[in-house]
Fold each of these.
Amino acid sequence: MEIKVQPKLIIHGGAGSSLKGKGGVEAVRRSLYPIIEEVYSLLESGTNAKEAVLRGCQMLEDDPCFNAGTGSVLQSDGQIRMSASVMDGTSQSFSGVINVSRVKNPIDLAIALQSSPDRVLSDYGAAELARELQIPTYNGLTELRLQEWIQERQDNFKRTMAGVVAEAELVEASNARRGTIGVVALDTEGKLAVGTSTGGKGFERIGRVSDSAMPAGNYATKYAAVSCTGIGEDIIDECLAVRVVIRVTDGLSLKEAMQRSFTEAQEHKRDFGAIALDASGAIAWGKTSEALLAAYHNGDKIGDTLEIPMGTEVGCIFSAESSV
């Protein structure tokens, strides 16, 4: 099959405090790289961007290392409530679910709503949709997340968020937080799609809504697509994904749009990260947090952001690689 456009792919597994040594970096690579390999192979074979995003998000949700699907954090009442959304850049169609429980892959519900007249459903509606689709019930609780919640309950939930990575040895326990997963894909037809999924902050008030099911955290047009991770309230306040995409749509390069948006975010003392692609094949990421757990395929090789240090005077790291 002749490739019309060189596909591109970038994924993330959250943002937060620095990974603890080389062991932590290698463990996260062992989770991210096989997903990059499988999803990029799908894109090369002609799978469209939205289907590739679906598969990537499913795989990230199924990895208990990350705070989405299996391995999701617990809210203050000890329950798992997950949110996810998908956006097709070509049709500019956004769909998602908010605070859904007892499903393995919330991204499946978000995808199913792409063709619905009602495209964002909250807890009860999302549960009814799962029943209509005959999706079996599923318990995504892991022992690590349960122990994390029990410890925090004993401390009366003094920590504001749960661990970004569900392995205690991988993160600094005192400041390990801000978990989400996301996938951004450009397919051989030059079409963009993005998906984002999360278990939430952990220990939060019942009913709190994540940015992951809003355009603020997950947005795409035919020009660019962005998935965000970090403190959801900060992402919402900056309307980060939309801000970057609109700037690209209005003529800025993807790198310029990210640079400007993250400079503004640093001035506002925000705490988050984002991954992005544009229609030309440029790949970009940025962060104000210490670490961004992201990996990408630029058409030639796999790379990642795991060992990029806390960076410049504006507190962000940027990189972009365009197709030739």
Amino acid sequence: MNHAECAAWLRERDGFLLLTHRNPDGDTLGSAAALCSALRRCGKEAFLYPNPEIREKLRPVILPFFAPEGYAPRHVLAVDVAAERMFPAGFEGPVELCIDHHPSNTRYAGELLLDPDRAACGEAVLEVIRHLCGEPAPEEADLLYIALSTDCGCFQYANTDARAFRDAADLIEAGADIRKWNQLLFRKASPGRIKLEGLIYGSMSFHHEGKVVVALVTDEMLRQAGATEDDCDDLAGLAGRVEGGEVSITIRDWPGGASKVSVRSGESFDSCALCARFGGGGHRMASGCNIPVPPAQARELLLQAIDEVWA
């Protein structure tokens, strides 16, 4: 469906529960909360599923949208959730509608609004809100700016295009407090985060004549730095800062002896194709996957796969 059809679908229904994905980032949280707010402005009953993995930095602005215990929705939506394996911990059941921008979306929902040319899912939600109830309210503008700016790396990532800047300008005009959010999300960091970044830079290895950069993030690094999960936003962007690098891979310790992998690349390499070999997906220049081995072993498997994907 397109944006207008999605808005019409929402307008005809009531009693919504909106899902965000596992290990939620600013895009899934901001997009879902903004849509939840817009639905409430239309007189609808709408809540977010209480994702247990939400981090402290965004908790104060997202928590008011969480569903009360025992809430029984009539309709379940997913926002920025590309596959069923990404459903938030504790959720089970069918999803009627998905709003997404990942080309790798598995089409698990009964209805799908897929907008793969958008830099962030927040842009697709912005269009839906415009069809649903006009321009976003100031609170929704804040939430959508969080969504857009975090998925674009404060408008530094390769997915940033002219439309992303135009949408950001519209959100500012609608009341988004960009000074507040840029300071909170991009300009300030805890001492633990600063120390952790130093350890990550020290872990980097370089391959394919410096075109491939791999960074490891272990639980021991977090312990040494005194860092918490709240200090782990956008770690995948650090390896991409290396001059000459075309593919950057960040590999994190994950429960059960596994590794969580984030891949970023330029146009010359298909990150999604690499992650798909390990059951993951995403975008051509930004994708992820989980591999059931520790980080050092995952690095070797990924380097082998890069040779095949790049061949």
Amino acid sequence: MIRFHDVTMRYPEGHEALRSVNLHVPPGQMLFITGHSGAGKSTMLRLITLIERCTRGQVVVGGHNLSRIRARHIPLYRRHLGVVFQDHRLLLERTVFDNVALPLIAAGYRHGEVRRRVRAALDLVGLLGKERLQPVMLSGGEQQRIGIARAVVHRPSLLLADEPTGNLDPNLSRYTMELFERFNQVGGAVVIATHDLDLAWSMSHRIITLSEGSIVDDTSAGA
């Protein structure tokens, strides 16, 4: 599913966010990326989503060498990804339904299929019945669940989450991780960048630890 081959990411000012990283994430695996602030966690996700391109090495996702994907083809590539952000990035003036439906509308799904899939995604995250509310009418935890529903509504093969529990209390954090597990259990690969090492360890999935842009620990090295 994901391969990093000797990947280095150096920014113009000279900072190396990643240093010769090698990583293989098989299809269907759930992986936590941990490490201190600035260790390179978010950079790895930005490379996978093609927000940025690596300075050296290769990133391969789903058999696609990302260095060969031209700018105009990036939106098509991203249709196979689901992304959950810490700050939700919801359209606050639109309804819950409209927010979750965005990936489907962008992909050209018909209205009936959009409605069916949005309701299924909201049911997954426990928000069925709140389709017509605006996000500002819901709690922070519910807004995060809207983001998760939007990320999975088009049934991506890969779900990415960047510090998805950073603003949540412990109970909501655990519930959020269990939602990611449900997606993983039906075959989707999941990669979560998090500073919450205790929560990651409690989930009994693969964990890699970054320090100064390098992988210093991997609970399933050689996977």
Amino acid sequence: MTNRNIAQILVQPINKFIRNESSAGIILFLSALIAMLWANSAWKESYHHLWEIPLSISLGDFEIKKTLHHWINDGLMAVFFFVIGLELKREVVGGELSEPKNAILPIAAGVGGMLVPAAIFIALNHTPEAAAGWGIPMATDIAFALGIMSLLGERVPVSLKVFLTALAIADDLGAVLVIAFFYTSQIDLLSLITGIGFLGLLLTANLMGIRKTLIYGILGIGGLWIAFLLSGVHATIAGVLAALTIPASTKVNEQEFSQDMEELIQRFREADPNNSPLITAEQLHILEAMKKTCAAAETPLQKLEHGMHGLVAYIVMPIFALANAGIELGENLLQQGFTPLTLAVAVGLILGKLLGITAAVGLLVKTGIAELPPKTSWMHIIGVACLAGIGFTMSLFIAELAYEDLQLINQAKLGVLMASIVAGLIGYFILQRAATGSTAQS
């Protein structure tokens, strides 16, 4: 057996797993499960001590010192929000949210799926301290939701996946605005002005036609992110703002690209071969020209989004889950699960998302403003509304921002985990039934 065959045997299953939509959700679930088991094992002290390890970045007299947990929530999650910003811009520029007639239904569903859960949460929590977490049940974890939906394969209409994706992106935008306006600590005005200055430089670079992602990385991380980290505005907002400045246009159109590539391919064919494993200098120059032509036909936004998807799905989010899902379950788990805060989060996510999304969709469809996505039924919409109750990543993140009391944080997180499991199971079985009904009718 050759080395190539061995590599294919080892690498192909890994590549197939990574390309599968459900893989990210599976790894995220396993990370959360490991965190839960670790935090409730004989080694639970090591779990908590690990995330409290102090780490610092210093340059001369300038130093930023935070715990590992803070670096994950303020640093790695900024990368997560950066990719959310890229997805949002792509959808607005040329995706499902670019056409008003296509965008209105998922946006309305997203708004309904945020307002109703927040209202339910507030109604169930009367104490000011607990009520501060009203933003927790507003979020949807797109990786988990799409991962569960992908388990049904081709039995789910493509239009329904598109609807859920657009809904979740609108939902993410809402969550970002909630974090920016309601979960921001005391503002350091000088740092905020500095951050705005770096944002201006990023926008200027875009307007000047600069397409080197390294420039945006230096200004975004070295300037905007650090300034926001010091300003009191949560650093993850810098990730979204930086993403919105990334160029979303090509340097050449499709016709120019095709013509240039055909000419270069013809030149490569006509180039004199050297009959050796190495290519000639002329062939090397032609290949370099091909690379430049390909780069000119790509948008930096889509290139970054595609390149960073694996990083976020398979590294950033699992690490976040490992660091934040470790809730210690006491001896009386039943009592823990029925605290007002835990119930408010769980009911807000499960029932609030279901009522908010279906009511918003029903209102627009009944009034004739919008139509259901092609090849979908109301059973599909109800199933998606249930899947939207999987708050997980975003909800856990907002819980960390909403409370300082560890007991309240753990109660909120327990509600998130309970709701995500229940909403995922209910949503899956409803969509499975909808798929069965569609097959029977056809």
